[in-house]
TrEMBL record:
Residues 355-364 have a biased composition (Basic residues). Pfam families: fn3, I-set, THB. It comes from Callorhinchus milii. One of its GO terms (biological process) is sarcomere organization. The lineage of its organism: Eukaryota, Metazoa, Chordata, Craniata, Vertebrata. Residues 581-678, 682-777, 780-879, 978-1074 form the Fibronectin type-III domain. Residues 394-474, 882-973, 1092-1182 form the Ig-like domain. The keyword Repeat applies. Residues 375-386 have a biased composition (Polar residues). The keyword Translocase does not apply. SMART domains: FN3, IG, IGc2. This is Immunoglobulin like and fibronectin type III domain containing 1, tandem duplicate 3. GO terms for cellular component: M band. Residues 351-386 are annotated as: Disordered. The gene is LOC103179097. Keywords: Coiled coil, Immunoglobulin domain, Repeat.
Length: 1191
């Protein structure tokens, strides 16, 4: 049997139930003991973490606690057990009155803090804070019972000091460095050097390394320990705690102020031409409030400059519109001590295309799409680059030492450009001629790199005419083991003696950090008291101390880094030891008056070294001395001795010997000289003749030999089914070959065996008989009832039935299930042994196969009559029409903030599983949308939503038995920007008309409207006077004269209100009235004379050849102007191919069946006595390519 011993975890005890545990199994162990807790009434109870055991069951040895009370305080025992052992530990629970006392009202700020921070988090802060800060912390987190807090805090500190008895720490140093890292330095003296050190963040364990490859790593120099966190990010803000085993050494917090502030993406110089727009962009590591300057001039958002900030205040952009030579210079963004600058460089005029670009931009700026183009420009600063580049650079990953290339395609062959790496121009100083090659092939520009190394990684940029495209080059260097060392290790096994230390060291190369894991025979090896795995970045080492035979096997190592994974066999580990004892029992081969021959089984484990021989000794029963019989070869497992006396009994012991030592001995039973017990063994087990509730009749066969002595009879032994204890039934030998056993209990199941006896004693027992119940003979059971199919799918059919009616002694002990396929006459049994349940699943069926099934009840009396299903059954699921399973979380209208992900999931049912189709506004989804389908649900996922993702989404389900659909609307929007400045006018007495400029988001969101509020200057509350306003003007009535008012306008959409736009000065209406006077109007004769003006100008036309062309324009003027048409400055008055009309100033020119010769510049000139006006357009007639005739 096993024993009781302590775990490597302090405070945990392991009780092992068995001595030998099967390979692959183990007794349970608790890796993290629960910490003593102090809980207020009503809080949750204890918990443990990280259990390691096989098929364990975790129980708390005390009733479950739903709401803690004072009576629940005390020690609790936690137990984890399985069939091989049990692990348990105790923990103390202190129940106290709640600290957050409600007797004093809390402020709203304190209430929010209580909801945001857990109570354990507050206790950690108090444990590490100075006494002078207690009051400020209590006020911050809403703690009002100050006296009770001090009492509990002192008690917790005392408990921590008791836990830290094994750790003597001297001082703690917390430092945040300018390079973006943070260190926790402390000195401590560990009484147990094998104690494990744990790092926690906000109560969750963080993995760390002892090398500087990971973000979290631990450095140790003597008694000095330093925890380091590299590259601090906003996610690293929180409470950190260092534990040694279950004792807390210290804890500290990293505040947001410790996160280094800087620009992750600096401003870049911009080159552009006159009248174009220039965009400067940068990104910061934390949200900033930044200012833009041009030289010494501060810039503000307006007509000339457009300043935009992303919703998270990390992205900043400045757009300089309609550039002129005066705009060239240095632009700077600054936030406190941080700043980033870039220059705006104005290039020479592009004579070939400047005029058309300028005209198109002016035309676009004058349209209603002006705001949309500005938004697109701010969201994607590469719009101009997209027109300049046909294909931009793409990110490239390449193995170290290989060749690679980066290429892009420009829109024009006339353009040229330069390559940059990490902001520096690529030249021969950076890359020699044999290292890189820059190739231009028409519009394609290629940078070829040969034999790339780690220093070649970075951001590569290609600039051309002020436009640029960027991509990253990532050098992949997966870990590789030293093949020469591996070949040397694989030549022969690594041999080590038991109790010694085995060490394997393998060099490797690869991009750090590289993580190494070792395995033995496919099972991963973990660090413990014997196994140590180290990795210093250049080699990995496995060390196993105090080796035993169980440590032998095939060792393999797995290396992993961000570039890939390598796993390979390293070597065979052989542990040598003294052999195990020979296997028993010792058999007597021969026993005569002058000779005894014995036989044993070979050793199960030779210790990893071939055996040299076996040593055998004998001892006469009754004496103390052992005499050596002799040594036999390792392949021989028999020996005989003639140095015996008749009728004397002897004992033998055998040792196995190898070069490592001598095994434990195998000792035989006493053997009498002249007796050959093997000849008395009954060859066949006894048979059951009859059975009843009172007696069981047995019979058996006599042995073939009586051992040369007279056979005196037989002894009968019995045992209960499942027991290991045999009881002899008869006191005297039975001379016959049959016997009636009457010492039985009705209903009990028994097994029997027989032992032959001669004058020298008992022989070996026979094999056990078949098990038999002590009960009256049974009749076969009846027929089962209510046979039915409960479930079916494509490979199985489940049956259920009711047991047959019981009459007298014919109850069913089990059931047999049989199956027959359609067209077959043979029944096949599904279960080899009868099942005692009234249900069964027939598996392994053919999909859509047609089967008949039947069930038969059986017992000891035989088989009953089978019951067959009344019809054939198909191997397929039940037919179910598609149907949505909707819950309360599914809404038909969802509002998503722009930039956030869209994730919606619909559950459904249907058999066979339906086909799922998604549509948006009746069309297939965009490439950015990802659909994840299973047999029970379908999920729509869009990682970064845009306003274009708004629409009506439809999901369709369809299978052979029907279809179903569901529609819902998703609106992607953002918090609207505030309206422009307000203008107040008194158009009607005692009213005020409020006018404002449109919000920047009005043209992007058709659900946006405005809300108007007013406030009396003598009051602080705002009152809504206008809601759901879709224009930019609202008139407020009932304005009291001589009273001052403030007005406010807010933009509102489906998501939220914008920031308000307020009047800066109060508004009031004076009571003074001008004297009433009547002024008769003076009428003057209207002068109708007007110079001709084209109110509607001609538009450009591009028409296929053979089509009719109709060009129209509208002209105003008095007297009515005379309109004349010209083509390429030639009048068209007498040309019959053209027909012109002038109806009330609407002038049209028609060309029937236009041909390419009609292309040209068309001009309409309107003249009257006061002047003339001219309007021109271009007509382009495109030729239609002839369709090839198919012969």
């Amino acid at each position: 049997m096993g024993g009781k011993h302590k775990s490597i975890i302090p405070g945990v005890t392991i009780l092992q139930f068995v001595e030998n545990i099967p390979e692959g199994c183990n007794a349970p162990n608790i890796l993290r003991k629960p910490l003593p807790l102090t809980k207020p009434e009503g809080k949750e109870t204890l918990k443990t973490e990280n259990f390691s055991f096989s098929f364990s069951y975790l129980t708390w040895r005390k009733n479950q606690i739903k709401k803690l009370t004072i009576s629940d305080a005390g020690y609790y025992k936690c137990t984890a057990s399985n069939e091989y052992g049990e692990a348990f530990c105790t923990v103390n629970l202190i129940v106290a009155q709640g600290i957050l006392d409600c007797s004093i009202p809390h402020s709203s700020e304190a209430t929010e803090k209580k909801e945001e921070f857990s109570e354990e988090y507050v206790w950690e802060i108090l444990m590490e804070a100075d006494k002078k800060d207690y009051e400020k912390i209590c006020h911050k987190y809403g703690i009002t019972n100050y006296r009770y807090m001090l009492k509990q805090l002192n008690q917790m500190k005392k408990e921590r000091e008791e836990k830290q008895a094994e750790v003597n720490h001297v001082s703690v140093r917390v430092e945040t460095k300018k390079d973006g890292s943070c260190t926790f330095g402390f000195e401590m003296d560990l009484k147990n050097p094998a104690s494990k050190i744990f790092l926690y963040k906000n109560g969750e364990m963080i993995s760390y390394d002892t090398e500087e490859m990971m973000r979290h790593y631990l450095k140790q120099v003597g008694k000095k320990y330093t925890f380091c966190i590299k590259d601090l990010q906003p996610d690293d803000v929180g409470m950190y705690r260092v534990d040694v085993e279950d004792a807390t050494v210290f804890s500290t917090a990293i505040e947001e102020s410790a996160i280094p502030v800087g620009f992750t993406y600096q401003l870049s110089d911009v080159k552009c031409e006159e009248s174009e727009d220039a965009v400067f962009e940068c990104a910061s590591s934390v949200p900033l409030v930044a200012n833009w300057t041009f030289g010494s001039q501060s810039l503000a958002d307006g007509d000339k400059y457009q300043i935009e900030v992303s919703p998270d205040s990390l992205m900043h952009s400045l757009t300089v519109k309609d550039i002129s030579p005066a705009d060239s210079g240095l632009y700077t963004i600054s936030a406190g001590e941080l700043s980033s600058s870039a220059r705006l460089i104005l290039e020479g005029d592009n004579l070939s295309g400047k005029s058309s670009k300028h005209g198109q931009r002016r035309g676009l700026h004058g349209s209603d799409l002006d705001g949309l183009n500005k938004l697109k420009s701010s969201q994607d600063g590469t719009n101009n680059s997209a027109r300049h580049f046909k294909t931009g650079l793409s990110n490239v990953s390449v193995r170290k030492g290989q060749d690679t290339e980066l290429c892009c395609v420009l829109a024009s062959e006339m353009s040229d450009g330069c390559w940059y790496k990490n902001g520096k121009k690529v030249s021969l100083n950076i890359y020699p001629s044999d290292k890189s090659e820059m190739v231009k092939d028409g519009t394609k520009h290629t940078l070829k790199l040969h034999n790339v190394q780690e220093e070649d990684s970075g951001i590569y940029r290609f600039e051309s005419d002020g436009r640029k495209t960027e991509a990253s080059l990532l050098i992949e260097e997966p870990p590789e083991l030293d093949q020469d060392v591996l070949n040397q290790l694989r030549k022969k096994p690594i041999t080590v003696k038991a109790g010694h230390t085995a060490t394997v060291k393998v060099p490797f190369s690869g991009k750090p950090p590289v993580k190494a894991t070792w395995s033995k025979d496919g099972d991963e090896l973990l660090d413990d008291r014997r196994i140590s795995i180290s990795n210093d970045g250049k080699f990995t080492r496995l060390s196993i101390s105090n080796c035993s035979r169980k440590d032998r096997g095939k060792l393999s190592v797995k290396l992993r880094n961000e570039s890939g994974t390598t796993e390979t066999f390293v070597a065979d580990l052989l542990v040598t030891d003294k052999p195990l004892s020979p296997q028993g029992p010792v058999e007597v081969v021969e026993s005569s008056e002058h000779c005894i021959a014995i036989k044993w089984k070979p050793v199960r484990d030779d210790g990893g070294v071939p055996l040299s021989h076996y040593t055998v000794e004998r001892q006469q029963v009754g004496r103390n001395t052992w005499n050596k019989v002799g040594d036999v070869d390792k392949d021989t497992t028999t020996i005989s001795t003639d140095k015996v006396e008749p009728q004397k009994k002897y004992m033998f012991r055998i040792w196995a010997v190898n070069p490592e030592g001598v095994s434990e001995s195998l000792v035989s039973d006493a053997v009498a000289a002249g007796i050959k017990g093997k000849s008395l063994r009954v060859l066949t087990p006894p048979k059951i003749v009859t059975s009843s509730s009172k007696a069981i009749k047995l019979s058996w066969a006599a042995p073939r030999s009586s051992g040369g002595l007279r056979l005196t009879g037989y002894f009968i032994e019995k045992r209960k089914k499942g027991s290991n204890i045999w009881n002899t039934i008869n006191e005297e030998p039975i001379p016959d070959l049959q016997w009636i056993v009457t010492d039985v209990v009705a209903g009990q199941e028994y097994e029997f065996r027989v032992i032959a006896v001669n004058s020298s004693g008992r022989g070996e027992p026979s094999g056990e008989s078949e098990s038999v119940f002590a009960r009256e003979p049974m009749d076969p059971p009846g027929i089962v009832k209510d046979l039915r199919v409960t479930y079916s799918d494509y490979s199985s059919i489940s049956l259920a039935w009711t047991p047959p009616l019981r009459q007298n002694n014919d109850f069913a002990e089990g059931y047999l299930v049989e199956v027959k396929s359609f067209g077959s006459t043979t029944w096949t049994r599904c279960n080899t042994a009868a099942v005692n349940m009234t249900s069964y699943t027939v598996k392994g069926l053919k999909e859509m196969g047609k089967y008949s099934l039947r069930v038969t009840a059986v017992n000891s009396g035989g088989m009953g009559t089978p019951l067959e299903l009344d019809r054939y059954v198909f191997a397929m699921p039940p037919a179910v029409c598609p149907k949505f399973v909707l819950n309360k979380s599914i809404n038909k209208f969802m509002v998503i903030e722009e930039g956030n992900s869209i994730r919606t999931q619909f559950s459904f049912e249907g058999s066979p599983p339906p086909e799922v189709t998604w549509l948006k506004d009746g069309l297939p989804l965009s490439k950015e949308a990802t659909i994840i389908n299973t047999t029970e649900n379908s999920q729509l996922f869009i990682p970064a939503s845009q306003r274009s993702d708004s629409g009506i989404y439809s999901i369709f389900l369809k299978n052979f038995f029907g279809q179903e659909s569901f529609d819902f609307e998703i609106r992607v929007t953002a918090i609207p920007k505030p309206p422009g400045p307000l203008t107040l006018d008194e158009n009607v007495p005692n009213t005020v008309t409020v006018s404002w400029e449109s919000s920047w988001d009005e043209h992007l969101d058709d659900h946006l409207y405005y809300v108007v509020k007013k406030r009396d200057s003598s009051r602080t509350a705002w009152h809504t006077v206008g809601n759901n306003i879709f224009n930019n003007r609202f008139t407020i009535i009932n304005i009291i004269p001589e009273r001052k008012y403030y007005f406010r306008v807010l933009a509102k959409n489906d998501m939220a209100f914008s920031d308000p736009s307020d009047t800066k000065e109060p508004w009031s209406i004076s009571k003074k009235r001008d004297p009433f006077t009547l002024k008769l109007p003076t009428y003057k004769e209207v002068n109708k004379n007007r110079v001709p003006v084209f109110s509607v100008k001609l538009k450009t036309h591009i028409v296929p050849s053979g089509c009719d062309v109709n060009m129209s324009c509208a002209v105003e003027g008095y007297p009515l102007p005379q309109v004349t048409w010209y083509k390429n400055n030639i009048a068209l008055e007498n040309n019959r191919n053209y027909w012109s009309t002038n109806v009330c100033g609407v002038c049209s020119l028609c060309i029937f069946g236009a041909s390419p010769n009609d292309s040209g510049l068309y001009t309409a000139i309107a003249e009257n006595s006061l002047g003339r006006a001219m309007c021109s357009t271009t007509l382009t007639i495109t030729a239609i390519e002839p369709v090839p005739r198919v012969c």
